[in-house]
Amino acid sequence: MNDISDLRADLRAAHAPAKLRLIDCDVHHAMRSPTDLHPYLSKRWRDHLESYGSRPPVPFVGSSPYPKAAPALSRRDAWPANGGPPGSDLDTMREQLLDRYDIETGMLHLLFPQGMDQRNQEFGAALCRALNTWTHESWTKPEPRLKGAIMVPGEDAAAAVGEIEYWAGSSGFAQVGMVTHTIEPLGRRRYWPIYEAAAAHGLPVGLHTSGFNGHAVTGTGWPSYYVEEHHEVALSQQSVLVSLVCEGVFERFPALKVVIVEAGFAWVPSVAWRLDAAWRRMRDEVSHLARPPSDYIREHVWFTTQPADEPDRPDDLRAVIDWLGWDRLLFATDYPHWDMDDPEHALKLQLSEAERCMVFRDNARAVYARA
Amino acid sequence: MTRAPEILGGIDCDIHPAVPSITALLPYLDPYWRQQITTRGIGGLDLASFPHRIPANARPDWRPALAKPGADLDAVRAQALDAFGTRAAICNCLYGVQAVFNPHFATALARAVNDWLAAEWLDREPRLRASILVAPQDPNEAAAEIERRAGDPRFVQVLLLVMGDAPIGQRAHWPILEAAARHKLPIGLHAGSAARHAPTGNGWPSYYLEDYVSYAQAFQAQLLSLVHEGALGKFPDLTVVCIESGFTWLPNFLWRTAKTWRGVRSEVPWVDRPPADILRERVRVTLQPADAPPDADSMCRVIEQIGSDEMLLFSTDYPHWHFDGVDAFPDGISPTLRRRMLVENPLATYPRLQEVLAA
User: Fold this and answer.
1) Binary contact (A285, B246; C-beta < 8 A)
2) Is A262 left (phi over 0), alpha (psi -120 to 50) or beta?
3) Chain B positions in Cβ-Cβ contact with residue A252 (cut-off 8 Å)
4) How would you write the pLDDT of chain B (359 residues) with one tens digit per residue?
5) H helix or E strand, kind and range, residue A330
6) Nearest by CB to A228, which of B225, B258, B290?
7) Minimal-distance CA residue of chain A relative to B222
8) How far is the alpha carbon of A65 from chain B, nearest alpha carbon, in Å?
9) Which residues on adjacent β-strands are paired with residue A177?
10) B35: which residues sit within 8 A by CB, 6+ positions away?
């Protein structure tokens, strides 16, 4: 007869769900140094990068206006042994993320630098091309589990479309990536050629909370603290969603899929209710919308889970997802950042096996043709 | 007209008397500003946040044929007070004082609007109370205006727009918060913008509808500011009321404050307990617009998630159009909570209301 510890192990095995390979919809790679880009820039832009550098509309040369909670906003243990910042070493990422959690596909979002928030737009376009080439050469080619986002210089829509066309045939890229802090709200017409090209190529548009646009992050000005700003960049994603819906982007491009990344998701029902209520009173102003705003949200928009919302009663999350639709949610870790969600503990909610499969893998497969 | 019986005797925490035009304020301005307004042709200072011809800004049966909605006292008596059996209603005048760039003019206008409110509305209708309009462009003058009004118990709150120059918790605003707290006047933050910043962190949206929706995000930013700047700790007697803000965003907002604070609290060591605990104690929210979910069960759940039966205050938001008839409550709010929202919660929020009603 087995002893008691064997019995326990057997019981655990009997109750453990079948091993599910995950799709992680928010992974951050990083450059070891800006010189990583040198092979992919012309002499003019290499010199420009060296002397003028990255110039989004912010006060500091080498730091965020709101110092983060941790160096490089990352987990302390994510600094690779061979030097370089967190996310810059493929082997470390394999060990800490891809192998550790058995990630089937990881969706890369590069945060720094961005081509889209460069004030010199010609440089921004060159930077996007270099960043995409570097992502391809250094990450998605050597590690096919990783898929890039085609970073576009979205404030110059023609250049952005060119960038999409250039990479659309490459299996290394699964989506189009834009910053969310844009010069105009993302639903405005200047960005429509980008949506048209993305939809035509069957590429979702991934909107990771990021970028600088010179606008105060709130409608009442600049907060003093990171603890505010961290929350408010997620609030600004609510405005991104409102803009995409109200401008009629989904009416105009019915094949367009949008993924809102790193903004949480428990806010979506209340924003949709408010939007629907306002629409009922003022639908004459947006007569291009044939249906209530919430319809477009539930048809065209997906949300990554991280940072997972944590209601006092875990079951309240179930009500949120029931409203949103279980097919709308995409699991994400945000590796290697300080507020990373561990797949084993992130969602404080008892999921059925079917729900687990959807959130951790199948929904992503449905959104991303290249997942 | 039939009345929902539980509404009789309630306190309406948000109605909007309108300044008919700047000429109505001239008697309340000093000779210098009277002359400036006249010789420079200054006028048209109604807020772009609330153009009165937009459908949402006046309910069809509350919309007069010609005049501005909310400008006529007799109409307010019949439609906002008698129809609901309202015992007292708080007038929040949405005139563009806070949006004026010249701080001297803004201060003079705030004073004029408050004098006008006292003489033209409060003196003539005993059921009316009012918020003190202040011009935060000059915080010390704003505090002085609070001092000047504080002796009149019919002024029950200090009113600011939710979108101003800078987050309200920041030190520059503390003279206003200090004066309000000292006189037990809540700070009322009302939907609307001084247009100092784009309403969203992503620039200026195309549609009025989007502006209106975006106030909910600004309310959340203001509450984050009040907590994390330590303003609510510094002024323990201060209550903040979010007016015309919606409230179904509260649950998710509170959850997120807890999570972010846990991760980043070392940045704000003076915030020594979860923000949601502080906010539930110190913040109140008005009913309309309810931004209600499509079913009563979901509303019940939202109320449970808010986790306090003291936070919600009854309001019609007259003459703005969020509901029809005389039942302002969306489905899913229990009779007990309705009663609290109508009477107990407003009385607890506005101490001055209690004194006046007892008299």
Assistant:
1) no
2) left
3) none
4) 444 544 458 999 999 999 999 999 999 999 999 999 999 999 999 999 999 999 999 999 999 998 999 999 999 999 999 999 999 999 999 999 999 999 999 999 999 999 999 999 999 999 999 999 999 999 999 999 999 999 999 999 999 999 999 999 999 999 999 999 999 999 999 999 999 999 999 999 999 999 999 999 999 999 999 999 999 999 999 999 999 999 999 999 999 999 999 999 999 999 999 999 999 999 999 999 999 999 999 999 999 999 999 999 999 999 999 999 999 999 999 999 999 999 999 999 999 998 767 65
5) strand A329-330
6) B225
7) A220
8) 14
9) A151, A206
10) none
Q: Which of A116, A210, A228 to mutate to test the interface with B (most CBs of B within 10 A)?
A: A228
- Give the separation between CA A269 and CA A246, rounded to whole angstroms: 16
B52 vs A contacts (CB less than 8 Å): none
Q: Is B345 on the interface with A (CB under 8 A)?
A: no
Sign of CA dihedral B107, B110, B115, B118: negative
Helices (H), A136-292: 157-167, 192-200, 226-246, 249-252, 268-282
Binary contact (B202, A226; C-beta < 8 A): no
Report the residue of A183, A213, A220 to disrupt the B interface, i.e. the one with the largest count of B CBs within 10 Å.
Answer: A220
Burial code of A190-200, b = ≥16 C-beta within 10 A, e = fewer? ebbebbbbbbe
Q: Residue A188 and residue B206: Cβ atoms within 8 Å? A: yes
SS3 content of chain B, % helix, strand, coil (to 5): 50, 15, 40
Count the residues in chain A: 371
Least CB–CB distance from A285: residue in B198, B208, B255: B208
Residue with tokens 């000429």: B23
- Listed by number, the residues of chain B in 57-116 with a beta carbon closer than 8 Å to a beta carbon of chain A are none
Contact with chain A for residue B269, Cβ under 8 A: no
Neighbours of A72 (CB within 10 A): 18
Q: How far apart are CA B125 and CA A290, in angstroms?
A: 46
Tell me phi and psi for residue A23, to 5 degrees.
-115, 120
Residues A113, B56: Cα–Cα separation, whole Å: 43
